[in-house]
């Protein structure tokens, strides 16, 4: 009889950084696309460079030859195989990148991010704030739009398996800290009724943690 086991291992990651942490007032962690590597992504984001901005590009951990068995190399974040494990691993990876850079969780204003991108990349002019917010909602613990099945806030979903954000206002999100994620998962497993509501305020969450 054969069995399948899951084993956690340590990996060595490559992270490209542009800017001076001593002068930067903000840190942008940029995630490259399929078959790219971190250096290529950083080069494409040159228009975002600023004395007050630290650009950080972590590289996906699965590298491969883009053509046959030699030549240019690309990297991939995940495939459909064991996708949920890959997501969990990469959330930890990106959190570790932020932690080593001394970049604590902070509020992210969707409009502010898109405004900066539109000013540098005109082709993003048609990208709406709502479409980005909708994408983030699937890993946000306190909004109605988090459920893949409308109105079902008790089933296993991305927002309760891999909690990432708390919505604090219209178009404004805060990245959950490692402690908050662990506390959320503990309380979710215990059936805390607040977490199964259709939606709740950031103040409700803060009171729950006290």
Brief synopsis:
The chain is built from 7 helices and 8 strands, in the order ββαβββαβαααββαα. By secondary structure, it is an alpha+beta fold.
How would you explain this protein's 3D organization?
The protein has helices at 38-44, 83-100, 110-120, 129-137, 158-161, 178-189, 202-209, and strands at 15-18, 26-29, 53-58, 62-67, 70-76, 107-109, 165-169, 172-175. The protein has a three-stranded mixed β-sheet with strand order 1-3-2. A three-stranded antiparallel β-sheet has the order 6-8-7. The mean pLDDT is 88. Helices cover 33% and strands 19% of the residues. The chain is of the alpha+beta class. Strand 4 (62-67) and strand 5 form a beta hairpin. The protein has two domains: 13-104, no CATH class; 106-210, no CATH class. It has seven helices and eight strands.
Distance between the termini: 49 Å
Give a short account of the largest sheet.
3 strands, mixed
| Shape label | globular
**Low-confidence runs:** none
Rounded radius of gyration (Å): 19 Å
Side by side, the strands of the main sheet go 1-3-2
Total DSSP E strands: 8
Strand fraction? 15-25%
| Helix fraction by DSSP (H/I, runs of at least 4) | 25-40%
The number of domains: 2
Structural class: alpha+beta
Query: Treating each run of at least 4 consecutive H or I residues as one helix, how many helices?
Result: 7
State the order of secondary-structure elements, H for helix, E for strand.
EEHEEEHEHHHEEHH
Mean pLDDT: 88
